[in-house]
Write a structure and sequence with these properties.
It is a single chain. Helix 6 links the parallel strand 4 and strand 5. The longest helix is centred in the middle third of the chain and has 21 residues. With 172 residues, the protein is an alpha/beta fold.
């Protein structure tokens, strides 16, 4: 089965989950949720670097399960998020995460900009560091040749921009 994977990546509190849900609904597709949130809601926000490896395995499994059943999936975060977060928080990343991140292919990445107001959440950690993190995502995407678009704006404008990029990609 030919399928497409669209990744929605970016720093904390940039609307990834809302955007992934909106796009999946708009294209009658499936949204793969962020496994880190589910994991931390269950285990608590006091996590170690080893937890990121477990989260990465869960994220891959969720994506792969969805891709086996559906021709189009929108992924609310990917291993790129786990890789950058691990490097930012712990100074390095487990080699399996890096290797698997480099192997996984997405047809399009949507990089969510930091132009949304910070939403307080007990699982979010660094409201003052979003610009630094955004720059890390952007640099990674530019230097690895990932097919990406930056999503800006708020509310309906943001959704319409993401929708337009996806439609353009699907018709090209």
């Amino acid at each position: 089965m030919h399928f497409k994977r669209i990744a929605i990546d970016g720093p904390e509190s940039t609307g990834k989950s809302e955007l992934a849900t909106f796009l999946a609904f708009s294209f009658n597709a499936v949204m793969v949720p962020e496994m880190a949130r589910k994991y931390l809601e269950h285990s608590g926000s006091n996590y170690q670097q080893s937890d990121l490896l477990e989260i990465a395995h869960l994220q891959c499994k969720a994506e792969d399960d969805a891709a086996r059943k559906h021709s189009l999936i929108f992924c609310d975060t990917t291993l790129l998020v786990i890789k950058i977060w691990s490097e930012f928080k712990f100074g390095n990343c487990h080699p399996w995460i890096v290797e698997e991140y480099l192997k996984r292919k997405y047809d399009l990445h949507l990089l969510t900009n930091i132009d949304l107001p910070w939403q307080e959440d007990p699982l979010r950690e660094h409201p003052q560091e979003r610009e630094i993190l955004f720059d890390k995502y952007h640099l990674e995407m530019k230097t690895t040749g990932i097919n990406y678009e930056i999503i800006t704006g708020t509310g309906r404008v943001r959704e319409e921009r993401a929708l337009a990029f996806c439609k353009k990609y699907f018709t090209s």
